[in-house]
C-alpha cells in the first residue's frame, strides 16, 4: 500500500499523494466520486494505472479503519 501513497512534508504540505507524483489522494477520490469510473480517472491521469487507483483506495480504507471517528453533534 505504501508503494502507492507517499507522505512527505516537502510535497503538497505533507498531504498524501500518489507515489512518484504530486497528485493528492483527495484528487483521485474527487475524480472517482464525480465520474464513478476508474477509466475516467485514468484518462485524465494517464501516468496512473488501475493498480495505483486500487492502492490509493486501500490506503484510504486503512486510514478510515484505524481512525476513531466521533458522531456529529446536532
Q: How does this structure look, described?
A:
The chain is mainly alpha-helical. It has helices at residues 25-35, 38-44, 50-65, and strands at residues 5-6, 17-18. Strands 1-2 form a two-stranded antiparallel sheet. The model has no long low-confidence stretch (mean pLDDT 92).
Largest sheet: 2 strands, antiparallel
Distance between the termini: 36 Å
Domains (count): 1
Query: How large is the share of residues in beta strands?
Result: 5-15%
SS summary, helix count: 3
Secondary-structure arrangement, i.e. CATH architecture:
Orthogonal Bundle
What are the low-pLDDT stretches, counting only 5+ consecutive residues below 50? none
Radius of gyration: 13 Å
| Average pLDDT over all residues | 92
Tell me the series of helices and strands, N- to C-terminal.
Answer: EEHHH
Question: How many distinct beta strands?
Answer: 2
CATH level 3 topology: Arc Repressor Mutant, subunit A
Please bin the fraction of helical residues: 40-55%
Helix and strand layout, with pairings?
Blueprint: E1 5-6, E2 17-18, H1 25-35, H2 38-44, H3 50-65
Antiparallel strand pairs: 1-2
Keywords:
74 residues, mainly alpha, Arc Repressor Mutant, subunit A, two-stranded antiparallel ribbon, 3 helices, 2 strands, 5% strand
Amino acid at each position: 500500500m505504501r508503494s502507492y501513497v507517499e507522505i512527505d512534508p516537502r510535497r503538497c504540505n505533507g498531504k498524501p499523494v500518489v507515489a512518484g507524483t504530486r497528485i493528492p489522494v483527495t484528487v483521485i477520490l474527487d475524480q472517482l466520486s464525480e465520474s464513478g469510473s476508474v477509466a475516467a480517472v485514468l484518462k485524465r491521469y494517464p501516468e496512473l494505472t488501475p493498480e495505483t487507483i486500487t492502492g490509493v483506495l486501500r490506503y484510504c480504507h486503512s486510514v478510515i479503519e484505524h481512525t476513531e471517528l466521533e458522531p456529529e453533534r446536532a
